[in-house]
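Justification of resources, computational component.

The compute hours requested in this renewal are based largely on the per-chain cost of generating structure records like the one below. Each record pairs the submitted sequence with a full structure-token output. That output is archived, and it is also reused by downstream analysis tasks.
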Amino acid sequence: MSGLTAELVVDGREPRTPALAPNGRLVCYVLAPISRTGDRLDTALWLVDTEDAAASRRATADTATESRPRWSADSATLFFLSDRAERGTPQLHRLNLADGTTSTLTSWRAGVIDHLPLVDPDLVALLAEDEPTEHDARRARDRDDAIVVGEGEPRARLRLLDLRTGRITTPDVFADRHVLELRQRPDGGPLAVLTGASADSDYGPRTGHLHLFDPATGTAENLGPVGADARSLAWWPGEYGWHLCYLALTPPVLQAGTAVFDLAVDSRVLRNRTAGLSMCPTTLGETDGAPLVVFADGLNSTVARLGPTDLTILSHHPGRLDALTTTPAGDEIAALTGTRYQPPNVHVGPPTGPLRRITDTRPELNGIALGTQRPLAYRAADGLDLDGLLVLPVERTASEGPFPLVTIVHGGPYDRYADRCQLFWFPSAQWLAAAGYAVLLPNPRGGQGHGHQFAASVAGRVGQQEWTDILTGIDLLIAEGIADPDRLGIAGWSHGGFLSAWAVSQTDRFRAALVGAGIVDWGMLAATGDNGQFEAALGGSTGWSGIGPHPHDAVSPISFASRIRTPVLILHGAEDTNVPLGQAVYLHRALRHFDVEHEFVMYPREGHSIRERRHQLDVLRRTRAWFDRWLMP
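The structure output for this chain reads:
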């Protein structure tokens, strides 16, 4: 077998957003590079026959960013977005499968954000911001570009494209609200439209409203507010009229588990259809009948059908099941999934399973030696059932331990480790296993896959029981002789970066730590991050909560910086607005003040995720070099 290199990790391509044709015969998916080498991410659309995967072919030949494939009702036409004409400004295009011709349908100067082909074959609904005016152009020329917050903020608006004339109209509906998502009733009736008061990711997610829009009359009706972070609309016909389902956070806690909410449109009766479940819904799949629901179910995934009164489990799948797409009849699905040792690919089959793989987008990984991965099940100090993953060093068994152990904490915290291939550009288990490390991937409370209460339990209490959950997993591996207690490391990105910083502020057990895009001050994050209200719910307070000390001070690693003795590697994108760079600068200055060994690396042009190829390579190599320095002298 060949060895794993950093180039093999970042130079691959991954499938995204599959779209299954209504007749079930073709899947279109986006093939995207894992890393970016230029200013633009060049993606491509591919078509694959569900019965003959060998007939897979590229749908277009342009150098462009292509996205959002959507099928016409008759499966004869594929609509998609592409910026082939002007890079960075996507327009709607149409591919006619009969003759292979592609045509450009829009030239909207602001670009098209999303689209939805309607049951009426002559209409396509668009989401797009307003086109710039001559006044805007004059201000730009005169450099009169002062920004007044709250004034003239961009909004995605609903627009209708008439394919017969090419004319785009903008219905005068929803006032100045920002349109997030559209879904037409399967019988050709009204559109369900999800809006927010603003595109501001701090303010908008708590201001969602659901509307009905009739494309024939141009009229709209407000169905009222929806839960925070609502998404994934799906219609279904009930015995007494139409229902609309959507996913949203379970109130009243902002940092909580996601639930399926079911609205009877005529009566306005709203029900939480997943209350009390020990699984977390991730996606809804609309059909002509009852919708499908994908659940994060511990380390794995479950597909169910939402009936009028109950939920019917249809199938179980290892690891994650993402980007579900289904035929109108609901008899065939396509989704992204993989195995412990194979990255995600497009799979198809009945919702009852099993699913067949029809793409192979990472053949270069065939024959690469990977570490043995196994699920873990254990109990927290208070008896709560927990799970996670252990990845052993490549070509080593547990009986050959103890090994140096690196614990990598996931982000979110409403995320999870699923039993899938753990190979990514950020600190990942297989990358470290290839260098001789055992790796613990814990799923502490606060994450996804175990129901609402499990997820909500860390709100206002970050770093408390979730931290002892992690320690319990480490102690388990030490007791089993797998982990060397004198060679422990910890790493994480985003919320995982927070827990890595928290770890070294609470104990000297770790010989080295990596804090990637991590939070060190919850009050500062609530004040400056993209998702301030969510961060305030996690930290427990804000700086404007009155005279301190505040609850968030007690759960912020920076408050305990004087205790840190562990060497720390700090990695952060210079243009991160989710967790702004100031968090890393704050930690760096504190460690410098207390004379703690550390290295601080900023990546120019990068946000919360690192995208440029050279930067991803640097993250991988620097991560291993850092742990090699301190855990493998």
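The mean pLDDT is 95. Residues 369-631 form a domain with the Rossmann fold fold (CATH 3.40.50.1820).
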